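Final report, closing paragraph on structural work. Over the funding period we assembled a curated collection of sequence-structure pairs, and we close with a single example.
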Amino acid sequence: MMRRRWRRASSIGGAALLAAALVSACAQTDLGTPCHLLRANNTEASPMPQHDVLQSGSGECAQFICASFDGASPVCTRPCAHEGDPCENGMVCRAALLTPQDLALAQQRMQGTDLDHNGVDDFQEWAAGLTDSLYCAPK
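Its predicted structure, as stored:
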């Protein structure tokens, strides 16, 4: 009888440990991990000093954005809500490429147009899938 109770408690404890491990694994992020900026021909692009470069669709990053801020080595990033807010992994929310106001103005002017008649909305084509202007960046 004592032996049976021990087994049952052990299996419950094992399930709890497994659940805790899964939650821990899901909570991890790749924010700030190195990634590669690629050109259209799949060759690696080098960051340019004092320039921000954002690339959406990067398979290396869970949030699908690889970025170089101010010419630094590219890292995985994600959009954030308020400039200056802290992000995970010691990063901070900041404007990249455009301020939120610049992005909103461009969207207002271009969205819904297709001046080159290729069937793609001009704003989506211009923004290349990046519809946010604030991203987590190294401090």
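Residues 1-30 form one domain. The CA atoms of residues 42 and 115 lie 28 Å apart. We thank the funder for supporting this effort.
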